[in-house]
Design brief:
- With 269 residues, the chain is an alpha+beta fold.
- 24% of the residues lie in helices and 34% in strands.
- It has 3 domains: 89 residues; 37 residues, no CATH class; 126 residues, no CATH class.
- Strands 8, 9, 12, 13, 17 and 20 form a 6-stranded antiparallel beta sheet that branches. A 3-stranded antiparallel beta sheet has the order 3-2-4, with no helix packed on it. It has a 3-stranded antiparallel beta sheet with strand order 14-15-16, with no helix packed on it.
- α1 packs antiparallel against α2.
- The chain is elongated and about 85 Å long.
Length: 269
């Protein structure tokens, strides 16, 4: 089969994946703490190409195409050739989003780098930039997705407190008393954190282990909004769509040529 069919098909898959990433960014443009992701594609695999030639009786050099003639003399190096283009990974941008003042005592935005530690119902620990918290029926501080917010003593308990506040240094105050302190961490390579759900992020070997932040800086009563730029994402979506169409046309052209080639050899045989 022609190598072009594989190249065109892989290009279509890449553009489809890029379209999915952009669509996810646009879907979370209003999600607090969301940071856009950018797909990275690479050529894979690469093979070494040779040209096989032999000299005819009159001294003219002729190309030898059939693979069964590879034992003949006249092997010339062409170089590496990539057969496909694939999505290698997606990485998270670390630019902070704009701050939106809400005056909600349960809201807090991290100033600078850092991630809140949260825990799901199965005990898995994730990390998030979203500081849009609320209190559940058990008097625990949770995210808008229902994950428990972790402090130095585990899940933050506020009980039936009628007055609640978050301080700039990360303390949680209930009825005038400090009940806990937010567990805020950082990573060596946060761009490699894996997205889980809308705002939760999971640790990967490339991101490194979480390191507690020495100095916590919060903006109480405010939220960090998404850092997605709608105009940029729309441009990337149009580019991905046009590239997909171009690759599909290449695929159809190779398919038609292959059909003609098979028909021609079929008539001669």
């Amino acid at each position: 089969m022609h190598r072009g069919l594989y190249a065109a098909a892989s290009a279509m898959i890449v553009q489809e994946s890029m379209h999915d990433v952009v669509a996810n960014n646009l879907a979370n443009v209003s999600t607090s703490g969301f940071r856009r992701r950018i797909p990275v594609n690479k050529s894979f695999p690469e093979v070494l190409m040779d040209r096989i030639e032999k000299k005819s009786e009159d001294g003219e050099i002729k190309l030898i195409a059939p693979p069964f003639q590879l034992g003949l003399k006249g092997k010339f190096l062409i170089g590496d050739l990539s057969l496909a283009d694939v999505i290698s990974e997606t990485y998270m941008t670390t630019e902070s989003g704009a701050l939106q003042v809400t005056d909600n005592p349960f809201d807090a935005a991290i100033v600078g780098e850092g991630y809140f530690a949260v825990q799901d119902g199965a005990g898995n620990i994730y990390y998030s930039r979203s500081g849009h918290f609320q209190k559940n029926a058990e008097g625990q501080l949770v995210t808008e997705d229902g994950m428990l917010v972790l402090g130095d003593g585990g899940p933050i308990e506020v009980g039936d407190a009628s007055r609640f506040a978050i301080t700039e240094n990360g303390n949680v105050v209930a009825d005038g008393a400090v009940v806990d302190m937010f567990q805020v961490v950082t990573f060596e390579n946060p761009t490699y954190l894996r997205q889980v759900g809308r705002t939760a992020l999971a640790v990967t070997p490339q991101s490194g282990a979480p390191v507690p932040l020495e100095e916590i800086r919060l903006e109480p009563g405010a939220l960090e909004m998404s850092n997605v730029n709608v105009v940029e994402e729309m441009v990337r979506m149009v580019e991905a769509h046009r590239a997909y169409e171009s690759a599909s046309k290449v695929l159809m052209t190779h398919d038609e040529l292959t059909g003609k080639l098979i028909s021609s050899y079929g008539r001669t045989s």
